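Now for a typical sample entry:
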Amino acid sequence: MVSETFLHAWRRWNELPDPPIGWLLGTARKVIANRVRGAVRNRALVDRVALLDAVAADVADHRGLAGPDAALARREALERLAALPGDQREALLLVAWDGLTTEQAAAALGVRSATFRKRLSRARAALSSVEDPPPEPGLPPLAARHPIKETS
């Protein structure tokens, strides 16, 4: 952090006040704040990716899949989860992953219990009614893009 602070000072050498100690301390404070914000954002991203990977792994475990089949099932589950509208995805994750009751999840989101139950119902219906996720425009279906080679 010291080196980054002095790098800023070197780049603004002609603009530094005399004495520069106040400017250096203020710049160091801002460098530290930027690092803390970056670490918080990075941790949130890591947690979110771990959450989605764990949800997808549960799907593969539930189906009794292993190896490439499990990887494909995890990817399909993540694609289906990502395709849900944000409010439905959030409802599903609060109940399925965080283990909240519908009343607790509704309170956490600041909505009525009936509203939350409807979102959850729609999310579950959307996930159970879809056999294959729709392919991206111009791309073959997921199974065709990533064929599983059977070994004897």
The radius of gyration is 24 Å. Residues 141-152 have pLDDT under 50 and may be disordered. Helices lie at 2-11, 21-63, 68-83, 86-96, 102-109, 113-129, 142-145.
